[in-house]
């Protein structure tokens, strides 16, 4: 049974007005137990923020890791997305992609770092599927700003692989990649793809350019039921070394 201490979570909802997206964007912000304005904290920025909190149970896992596993307290920022606009914002070929990138860099992060005790040099990006590839693209656009990526079954389509292939030195990048073996024929809104193959190819591209890649394939489908169980290990990987 889940320890009741894990469920005592501080989650704040913030709404920012984005001039780049011409709309309001909701953030879910998890503050760790004992959050103290005198201290500073690592921050995990999540694409698909609502899903990471509701289906990934990331706040409950964070409490568990901090209270019982000795993990340094950290902040989580979940950036919510309108599912109808998700591909347009997350995919590098999407017509809202550039605006979304600017929203994160020029609106979301400055807001978080001004209002909360977030470390500017201690950021992790996390995402599932297209959110995983979005996180990696953002990292490549701003080298050194986000050197750590959690990629849960990343949707690394041809365009994404071409972007990675153009890089020469990714020795600064550390990526945690997981993909389910039952994702070899997954239907997306623009075709059916073998996510296992996409992730293997992306792993090789990253490693060939000097990136550190923690890679695993496990029994699992392209669903939060699979990713949720992998989140604690992914967080531990970056927050304990």
Automatic annotation (TrEMBL):
Superkingdom, taxonomy of origin: Bacteria
Pfam family, one: Esterase
Coiled coil ranges: none
Name of this protein: Esterase
Organism: Saccharibacillus endophyticus
